[in-house]
Amino acid sequence: MNREEDLLQQIMRVASIGRDFFVEMRTRVKDAEIAAAFEYISDVKNRFLLDLTPWVPGGRSVANHHVSPAASAERIYVDLKRSFDGSAPQLSAGLLDIGEQQLMRLVERAFESAKSPVLRNLLKAHYPALVVCREAMTRLSARKVA
């Protein structure tokens, strides 16, 4: 597997587990504004996954057992599913922000190494929405301090 394929598979893993987390946890969130943010984030990730799937060999992410940014983000989301408190989601915001950072870094690396202009345009088109997702977690984290 080449570097581009590896990056795309990692992106698929992080986006997929992130989407699944936000879909599942949205039902636990008590605050309507935060629930709406979780819904937005899950929709962004879903659209991104749908557009990216044709570019990933085999059409889906293949589990790798090496330590990678995807594996680290996956561990964060799995651990948070067990400890997430819907009445105080801001307590998880710092870790959620790390997951969003990992996804953005992977997308940036894939953009830099992509040979296809069509793939570069796809990544570039989705990047602003991913930034909004990360900013939502940053704002949620700020609630913890307030």
Notable traits:
146 residues, mainly alpha, Ferritin, 75% helix, 0% strand, elongated
State the gist of this model.
By secondary structure, the protein is mainly α.
Provide the gyration radius in Å.
15 Å
Give the helix/strand class: mainly alpha
Residue-averaged pLDDT = 89
Low-confidence segments, ≥5 residues, pLDDT <50? none
The CATH topology label is Ferritin
CATH top level is: Mainly Alpha
| N/C terminus separation | 47 Å
Give the number of DSSP strands.
0
Shape: elongated
Classify the helix fraction into a percent range: over 70%
Second-tier CATH architecture: Up-down Bundle
Give the H and E element order.
HHHHH
> Beta-strand percentage?
under 5%
Number of domains: 1
Count of alpha and pi helical runs: 5
